[in-house]
Amino acid sequence: ASHVSKFLPPDVPMLASVQLPRPMQESNIIGKGGNAGFLGRAYDPYFLFQDPNEEIKLDDLKLRPEVPPVRLEQRKTLLETINAGMPEMEKVAESYALNEYYDKAYDLILSQRARNAFDLTQEPDAMRDRYGQHTFGQSVLLARRLIEAGTRFVQVNWPSVANGDPFTTAWDTHAANFGPLKDLHCPKLDQTLSALLEDLHQRGLLDETLVLTIGEFGRSPKLGVSTSGNSNAPDGRDHWPYCYTGLIAGAGVRGGQVYGKSDATGSTPLEDPVHPTDILATVYHTLGIDPHTEVMNHLDQPRELVKGNPVLGLF
Asked: Mind giving me the DSSP string for 191-203?
């Protein structure tokens, strides 16, 4: 998302990338990964930190009552004057892309576009019901509104402690693999994903929007066996990064096809294996960005966007 924000910024005053309903969490560490790294804070995604199934408050995207637009403009001019008279401060700002960060924040605050996009009350009740009246469903509906308003990249994380059941809503099924998948996870994913694809198609957006549904790894073929050092219940599956499935739609991808083939137990790929770097390269390809483009890191070292190659057989 950060590289997309850098190479393909929005054409209008809008958030370049958004991650919702909250950042990723690993071992109780919130926001581990998912930021812009050496590109600087200007290319970090906007983290919502709220449940779209409830009222969204965006105090950081509006002016405070005591700061009218004229006063904000005066503050911006004063900041530019101070930075111009302090070369060392300007160098620091450049190294962290702070000037771009400030400019984007300024445009967003003065524009109504972002705040309107986050206002789910503008959607008919029937549409909100179609996506699903739960955290994931309303997050994906919000993602559609953001894309429609000009945001380039939206990442929706499946919430680990939401959707009505704080114990069984994560896909990390080290125990109770079957019941939650059948009764909770898959029905909600099916409802929301089908609503998104149908909605994008009806709005004429599907041909220019890539939809990628995938996790960071699959689940172990055998029940109750530890493959990652985790303990697993007899009806649980462990982490399995060697073979798993993703769904890709839109942006010219041919529908109705199955690309690749695994063995009978889903343990290993047999035909047309796709590496995660190839998926990233495919995303760049659909956006018109050369996946092998080199960018310079904070140490002025060249870094290739990704080593993989786009999966052209999907198109």
From this structure: HHHHHHHHHHHHT
